[in-house]
Structures are given as structure tokens and as C-alpha cells.
């Protein structure tokens, strides 16, 4: 078990890189809009393509996909190429007050930002007790979502 704190964009990105790189089966993410996740970067595109080529499944939940549609063309290509392994969902209005942000990798690793407007957070590796609450939280959020971003919807 390993726990590390971060409080910068670089620290957050390094934590995501580590979780993306370690995941083999599932990546489950929640953020209000994924604006600061750099999902359209060359680095994240390569990490996510490697993950998806290995048969991993990616689940994203957001309040809005507008930032991804506007600012992440590489992610939209990834969605087009691997749409059968990626599911993007949008929260219902009743959940729009949620402001935390997290990513779960293979139900064993978690990157968590306490508020999506700030980079302060932590990453936990091989700590099922820490990821269990994140999984339960995501399942609760997922139950209150509707289909979101699709390759066909973005015109790809």
C-alpha cells in the first residue's frame, strides 16, 4: 500500500499517469467537466490507447461534456476508435452540486481531488479500503446518469 499527496497540476497529472499506466481492466472516472485532466494530450492518448488495446474498459461520468468536445480532439478520436470499450455518461440535474474528482484503476488504485477547482488531493495504490468508498460513490453517481458523449454525436 502506498499513499501520496499532491497539490499541483503536475502532481495530479503524474498521479493520473501512474494509475492509467497500472490499470489493465477498468478505469472509472468522475469529474464535473474533465477540463483539467488533459484527456486530449498526446501523453494521455498514448496511455489510454495502450489500456484500451489490452481490452480495458473506460467509464467517465461528468456534469458536462462541452469541454471534452471543444478542447480534446484526440479524446474524441479515441472515443471513435474504441467506442465499444468507452462509456461516457452525464449526471442528472440533482447531482450537479458534486465538485470532487476521482479516477479508479482496476478497483485497487485511486486518484482523488477533494474539489475539482483545485489540484490538492491524493493517490492511493493497492489500497482496497480506500478504493471501496470511491467505487460505492461512483456506483451511486452512475445510477443517476444518462448516456453522454458518443462518437456519432460528435460528428466523427
Question: Could you explain how this protein is built, in words?
Answer:
This protein is α+β, with helices and mostly antiparallel strands and 156 residues long. The protein has one domain (2-147): Endonuclease, Chain A (2-Layer Sandwich), CATH 3.30.870.10. It has 5 helices and 8 strands, in the order βαβαβααββββαβ. The N and C termini lie far apart (41 Å).
Strand content: 25-35%
Overall mean pLDDT stands at: 93
The CATH superfamily bears the name Endonuclease Chain A
- Largest sheet at a glance? 8 strands, mixed
Runs in which pLDDT lies below 50 for 5 or more consecutive residues are none
Per CATH, the class reads: Alpha Beta
User: In which range does the helix fraction lie?
Assistant: 25-40%
Shape: globular
Radius of gyration: 14 Å
Draw up the topology in text.
Layout lengths: L1 E5 L2 H14 L3 E5 L11 H12 L3 E6 L3 H6 L1 H10 L3 E6 L9 E5 L3 E5 L7 E5 L2 H15 L2 E3 L9
Parallel strand pairs: 2-3, 3-4
Antiparallel strand pairs: 1-7, 2-5, 4-8, 5-6, 6-7
Helix pairs in contact: 2-4
Defining traits:
156 residues; alpha+beta; Endonuclease, Chain A; 8-stranded mixed beta sheet; 5 helices; 8 strands; 37% helix
